[in-house]
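Dear colleagues,

As part of the handover before I leave the project, I'm documenting each prediction I ran so the next person doesn't have to rerun anything. This entry is a single chain, and its sequence is reproduced below.
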Amino acid sequence: MGLSVAVYCGSRFGDRPAYTQTARTVGRLIAEAGGSVVYGGGRVGLMGTVADSALAAGGRVVGMIPQALMDREVGHAGLSELHVVQTMHERKQLMAERADAFMALPGGIGTLEEIYEVWSWQQLGYHDKPVALLNVEGYYDALLEFMRVSHERGFVSAPQYHALLVDDDPARLLARVGEAAAKATARDDYSKI
């Protein structure tokens, strides 16, 4: 694969062991495919699990973390690269620039905000990179139902609704992401955001 995948997920572990196991699997699979994990730079929760798993499998992990979070000592010290930035906006833009694709695992408000932002940037034409949701044990079922209703009621176009890649199997979703990334036109233009 060789892709740089921005992985968005929780800074907590959630209430099911499957979330942590899936985070381990995603980090390992990206590393084994010769790819890089691009993420928020933390050492805690599912974020830290993805990073540690990728590193343990010999992969490259690139983190972006705002100074305020670094000051709280949640930054991961063992990464291939750790970029300390001033704002969350800088963090998200740098992650978007460094990634070939975007994937959300279970997470909370921040995870949702990040995956929706890159999905909306895709809709607006700022990039043509794949955006994916890993639906571990039905975690995103209610969200997907909401998006179905949004589509049916005319707020989300058919092309954009179907652009979100969704699967419950990490290996299968990463394969789909790789196929979609190979078709992307790489027209990054985040300068107008």
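The CA atoms of residues 43 and 76 lie 5 Å apart. The chain has a mean pLDDT of 94.

All the best with the project,
I.
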